[in-house]
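About this split. The held-out portion is used to measure sequence recovery: a designer receives only the structure tokens and must propose an amino acid at every position. Recovery is the fraction of positions where the proposal matches the reference. Here is one held-out target exactly as it appears in the evaluation file.
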């Protein structure tokens, strides 16, 4: 969009503000059901029925055309090499509606299409609940650029890989033959389809959703950036697993309620690891260091001891999951003591049921925390320590009285894994919570919710979809006028535009609706402002995430200063040892190159 020149400094409005380019799930029409039931594999085809191998997902209903094709996802079963299309499944066929879709199958292409759609919708809904709005996907290219819908290719290439491709607006899932060490329900030479892993589908959809929330997180400017994408996507997949009560009950019975360390819950990509990688381990696990008593974990599992994206992402996963396990133990200590007093050698069925309910409800809250924290992260160059600050700030903002100690559990776990938090004196909650702008809080009257024309429906709050983006454009202009001024610019990481510095860009402006554990509803706006400066290698970025209350007060500014010499030097030092495609991705003006890295990153896992 064209620059604005009527503020103290010119600024631009980003294309991400255009609500018409964002996919939205429509409300059910008259006479339509609100939910659709579809059968999927709970993990992947390698699990037994005793382990709860089959699951019926309840997802939002929408009218579908064959594919399935709906308002958010277009499933296209196309072969990359030949371009051949496989006959699509019609989930609105009355027989499939009655039968909750096709039965799980490890070889039927139409079931693979069904599973891709069902898990995609399951993941999208969890983001919607956590954020209180329709999240939409990343700045998609290809055919997706016109309608904002994510394309899913269930059997795209003969390759043991799956990846999110922003440039083409798609998720691509591969398939290949099982190795000689394949176990359980696979045998050597049989086909392994990655789209049949619920973990992998949820992981890849999470990449696309995270890219929509923070498009510049795909820039590899720091070793934590790619790892945050990987670890975050694994966390979504792991916590989604707790929505299956039968699976959680089996896991609780395995451990007799003492912990949530059962392989049924903590393994990610079981079939992938056992059939394709080494035959002895899953793709990843949520627990790197089992013990919770030691002050620090083994250095080889720590933040300092890893650098590859997936290995470092596993550190993030383990730290968050450790916090989850600590809170589970705190919340169930009385119940477990009462069960122990029964003197039974095994937990009774009622006890297992009660403990599983606690674990399931707790997992929902942790998933909300993990997703919601992204709204409180800086718009780029986010480290694990800053993600921890975002978690603590978002939770403090919503639940000031942390009686059970959720935030303490997060801080303890991150510290145990050696995560460093920059620019804080200590790890107290007071130090970790983001601050208001240095110049103090101020109001932007035009951002008061009473003047924005927002739509409130079905528990969500969002911009009107039928006014061609006028409402969000007016609000973004008001924000730009308020912050693109010499007296306030430093608060938001900005500098005056010049021959080498582009005007600031209001990249996004989104609504936030959050419900506390006590039922209190809070509304905010979250915005990203990003600015680019030309350096010898390419483009260096700065800017901030801005949290605005419902009365127009600018409460938090989470900044990355464009004139930070220290950050520029650190970025240069990090990129010295990286491959050329990584360096190009970091310095590229539009970060399309970074999107192409996803396939290669997953191949290097």
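Reference sequence for scoring:
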């Amino acid at each position: 969009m064209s620059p604005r020149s009527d503020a103290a400094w010119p600024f631009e409005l980003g294309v991400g503000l255009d609500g018409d380019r964002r996919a939205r799930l429509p409300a059910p029409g008259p006479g339509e059901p609100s939910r659709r039931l579809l059968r999927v594999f709970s993990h992947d085809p390698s699990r037994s029925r005793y382990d709860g191998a089959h699951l019926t997902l309840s997802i939002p209903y929408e009218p579908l055309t064959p594919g399935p094709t709906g308002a958010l996802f277009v499933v296209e079963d196309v072969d990359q090499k030949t371009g051949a299309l496989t006959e699509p499944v019609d989930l609105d066929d009355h027989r499939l509606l009655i039968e909750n879709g096709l039965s799980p199958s490890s070889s039927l292409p139409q079931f693979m299409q069904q599973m891709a759609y069902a898990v995609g919708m399951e993941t999208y809904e969890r983001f919607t609940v956590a954020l209180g709005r329709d999240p939409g996907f990343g700045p998609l290219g290809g055919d997706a650029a016109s309608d904002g819908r994510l394309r899913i290719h269930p059997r795209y290439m003969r390759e043991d890989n799956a990846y999110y491709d922003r440039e083409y607006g798609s998720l691509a899932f591969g398939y290949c033959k099982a190795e000689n060490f394949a176990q359980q329900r696979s045998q050597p030479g049989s086909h392994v389809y990655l789209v049949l892993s619920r973990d992998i589908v949820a992981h890849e959809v999470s990449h696309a959703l995270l890219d929509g929330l923070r498009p510049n997180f795909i820039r590899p400017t720091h070793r934590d950036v790619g790892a945050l994408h990987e670890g975050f996507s694994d966390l979504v997949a792991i916590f989604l697993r707790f929505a299956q009560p039968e699976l959680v009950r089996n896991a609780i019975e395995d451990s007799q309620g003492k912990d949530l360390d059962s392989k049924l819950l903590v393994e990610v990509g079981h079939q992938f690891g056992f059939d394709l990688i080494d035959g002895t381990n899953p793709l990843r696990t949520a627990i790197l260091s089992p013990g919770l008593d030691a002050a620090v974990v083994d250095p080889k599992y720590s933040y300092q001891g890893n650098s590859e994206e997936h290995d470092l992402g596993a550190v993030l996963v383990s730290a968050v999951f450790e916090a989850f396990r600590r809170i589970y133990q705190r919340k169930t200590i009385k119940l477990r003591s009462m069960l122990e007093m029964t003197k039974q050698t095994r937990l009774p069925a009622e006890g297992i049921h009660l403990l599983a309910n606690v674990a399931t409800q707790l997992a929902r809250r942790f998933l909300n925390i993990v997703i919601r924290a992204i709204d409180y992260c800086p718009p780029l160059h986010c480290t694990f320590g800053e993600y921890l600050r975002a978690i603590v700030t978002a939770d403090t903002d919503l639940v000031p009285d942390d009686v059970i100690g959720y935030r303490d559990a997060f801080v303890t776990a991150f510290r145990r894994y050696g995560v460093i938090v920059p620019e804080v004196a200590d790890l107290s909650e007071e130090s970790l919570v983001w601050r208001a702008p240095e110049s103090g809080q101020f109001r932007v009257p035009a951002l008061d919710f009473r003047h924005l024309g927002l739509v409130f429906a079905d528990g969500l709050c969002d911009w009107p979809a039928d006014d061609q983006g006028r409402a969000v454009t007016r609000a973004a202009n008001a924000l730009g006028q308020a912050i693109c001024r010499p007296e306030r610019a430093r608060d938001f990481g900005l500098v005056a535009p010049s021959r080498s510095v582009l005007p600031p860009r209001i990249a996004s402006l989104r609504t936030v609706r959050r419900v506390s554990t006590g039922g209190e509803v809070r509304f905010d706006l979250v915005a990203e402002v990003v600015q680019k400066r030309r350096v010898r290698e390419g483009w260096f970025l700065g800017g901030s995430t801005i949290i605005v209350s419902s009365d127009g007060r600018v409460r938090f500014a989470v900044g990355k200063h464009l004139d930070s010499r220290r950050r520029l030097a650190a970025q240069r030092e990090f990129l010295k040892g990286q491959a050329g495609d990584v360096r190009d991705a970091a310095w590229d003006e539009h970060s399309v190159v970074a999107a192409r890295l996803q396939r290669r990153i997953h191949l290097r896992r």
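Annotator remark: The first helix runs from residue 94 to 98.
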